[in-house]
């Protein structure tokens, strides 16, 4: 149990290579321990942590190996985060990213049509219009919070469209996403229960939307796609909630934190910002580089289904492995010695693992790239430079890698 694991930490010294510690991400001090792991122990066993015993997989090659063997390294056996399910405390809410074949295959196939190249073309004009409206509403020469005003607003609008969700209630999606994606909540029984209440609230709201669409002709939104599919039309209530949470967190936290990471990264590397401002043709590559550099989900978890070996380490059946995308995207053997730097014209930026690899690669990757790319294009049209005016507040957790607040001011270049 997570509560037992937390108490156990009082008995043991903190492992400096335990990269699940929330303060590393809150304080942005995760770079050093991951650099040590990559250099000395790319597959490393942490015996004692707030999430129990786990293996850290921190370099590019073994992560690709694990992701390429989904039957050996299960997403379903233990879930996709380091936080364990606790009997009698949690309610299982299955989601297709945390299912193995063949269930995963059928359910993923159901929602995939919402993210095809033709759908991206269909949605691009609307995404651009909404991006223009948000950017044109921003104050110049006056401090505001980029996270709430731009990143959250744009991604929440997109989610509302994908779900055909009532526009006036769209910020509920942000609220539910924040509660669903915060794995630090497992450390408190009270917060677990509160989270469960909010997930039930989310499920009840969406159940009403579902009921309104039953028996109606299919429309392009995700709920209608589920209703009209063999793989998902008969989900029980908990699986319905689980898949909703997956799509909300996947569509909200990842894109919104990339949009914030873009602003933070360009502020930290003014030479790269100047390069991008001088040549907007770099935007498509800069999108991939920003996603690599930010890595909006730090890890995914897999559970070994049999005894095996990974880079010389003996992995036992039942062992849990954290695939640290945030570290693999800094792997010097793949991205060079400047991997910690945002380089807008990095030649192999698209090789990043921020979307995962293999059968579980992010189904909405194209949409995320489209949203971030259009944001960058519209900023360039306005010659908009976003300058940080104070310290940022980061998410204090090892799963969602992102920002709570980011005070900025706009200037022209």
Automatic annotation (TrEMBL):
Keyword S-adenosyl-L-methionine: no
Pfam family, one: p450
Record has Transmembrane helix as a keyword: no
Domain of life: Bacteria
Keywords: Heme, Iron, Metal-binding, Monooxygenase, Oxidoreductase
Protein name (record): Cytochrome P450
Gene Ontology molecular functions: heme binding; iron ion binding; monooxygenase activity; oxidoreductase activity, acting on paired donors, with incorporation or reduction of molecular oxygen
InterPro entries in UniProt: Cyt_P450, Cyt_P450_B, Cyt_P450_CS, Cyt_P450_sf
Family annotation (Gene3D superfamilies): Cytochrome P450
Family named by the database record: Belongs to the cytochrome P450 family.
């Amino acid at each position: 149990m997570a509560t037992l694991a937390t108490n156990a930490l009082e008995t043991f010294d903190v492992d400096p290579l335990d990269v699940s510690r929330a303060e590393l991400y809150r304080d942005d001090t995760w770079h050093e321990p991951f650099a040590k792991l990559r250099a000395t122990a790319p597959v490393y066993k942490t015996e004692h942590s707030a999430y129990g015993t786990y293996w850290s997989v921190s370099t590019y090659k073994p992560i690709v190996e694990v992701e390429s063997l989904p039957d050996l390294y299960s997403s379903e056996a233990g879930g996709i985060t380091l936080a364990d399910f606790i009997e009698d405390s949690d309610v299982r809410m299955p989601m297709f990213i945390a299912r193995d074949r063949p269930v995963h295959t059928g359910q993923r196939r159901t929602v995939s049509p919402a993210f095809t190249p033709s759908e991206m073309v269909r949605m691009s004009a609307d995404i651009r219009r909404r991006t223009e409206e948000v950017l044109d509403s921003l104050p110049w020469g006056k401090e505001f919070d980029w996270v709430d005003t731009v990143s959250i607003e744009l991604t929440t609008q997109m989610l509302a469209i994908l779900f055909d969700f009532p526009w006036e209630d769209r910020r509920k999606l942000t609220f539910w996403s924040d509660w669903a994606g915060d794995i630090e909540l497992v450390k408190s029984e009270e917060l677990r229960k509160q989270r469960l209440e909010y997930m039930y609230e989310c499920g009840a709201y969406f159940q009403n939307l579902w009921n309104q669409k039953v028996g109606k002709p299919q429309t392009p939104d995700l709920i209608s796609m589920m209703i009209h599919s063999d793989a998902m039309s008969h989900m029980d209530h908990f699986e319905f909630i689980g898949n909703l949470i997956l799509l909300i967190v996947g569509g909200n936290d990842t894109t919104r934190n990339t949009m914030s990471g873009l602003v933070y990264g360009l502020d930290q590397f003014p030479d790269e910002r100047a390069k991008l401002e001088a040549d907007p043709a770099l935007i498509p590559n800069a999108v991939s580089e920003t996603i690599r550099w930010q890595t909006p989900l730090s890890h995914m978890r897999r559970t070994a289904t049999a005894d095996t070996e990974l880079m010389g380490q003996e992995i036992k059946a039942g062992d849990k492995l954290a695939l640290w995308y945030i570290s693999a995207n800094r792997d010097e053997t793949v991205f060079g010695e400047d991997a910690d730097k945002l380089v807008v014209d990095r030649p192999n930026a698209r090789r990043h693992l921020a979307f995962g690899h293999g059968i579980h690669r992010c189904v909405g990757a194209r949409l995320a790239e489209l949203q971030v790319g259009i944001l960058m294009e519209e900023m360039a049209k306005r010659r908009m430079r976003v300058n940080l005016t104070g310290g940022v507040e980061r998410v204090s957790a090892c799963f969602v890698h992102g920002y709570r607040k980011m005070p900025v001011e706009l200037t022209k270049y």
